[in-house]
Amino acid sequence: VQLQASGGGLVQAGGSLRLSCAASGRTFSTYDMGWFRQAPGNEREVVAAIRKSGTSTYYTDSVKGRFTISRDDAKNTVYLQMNSLKPEDTAVYYCAGRSSGLFFRTSSNEYDYWGQGTLVTVSS
After folding, report:
1. What would the mean pLDDT of 55-75 be, rounded to a whole number?
2. In angstroms, rounded to a whole number, what is the distance separating the alpha carbons of residues 10 and 49?
């Protein structure tokens, strides 16, 4: 599967952005999907993830209550709605996918397919 992320940009603190990740192929609905980010000098970290069915989601603590992950299997797309953005949210954001298994995985090394990344810059 190929993933194409979009929607990044420059926004002021307190603002909002919505990231989109479009997937190719017919098996999107069978994949768990995740959003990860990497800031300069930092390791890549999970931001949010969603189970193939959409019934289970995961958020890292720093974005709970501000970010929402969702998916539209009819459009082969996963979204990340980011509200109340903070300067510390500045990073390159990547979408990723993996074939869903028995357990819901949120570690980056568990994901097999990656998009190219989209830069989010939050100014103070």
Report:
1. 96
2. 23
Q: How far apart are CA 53 and CA 71, in angstroms?
A: 9
Report the distance separating Cα 41 and Cα 45, nearest Å.
Answer: 12
What CA dihedral angle connects 52, 57, 61 and 67, to 10 degrees?
A: 90
Cα–Cα distance between 65 and 71 in angstroms, integer?
18
Of the candidates 4, 124, 10, 17, the residue with the CA atom closest to the CA atom of residue 76 = 4
Which residue in the block uniquely carries the two structure tokens 């990231």? 19
pLDDT at 1: 86
Yes or no: say if 69 and 57 are a contact pair by the CB < 8 Å rule.
yes
Contact status, residue 11 vs residue 121, Cβ threshold 8 Å: yes
| Average confidence (pLDDT) over 19-37 | 94
Kindly calculate the radius of gyration of the chain based on its CA atoms and give it in whole angstroms. 13
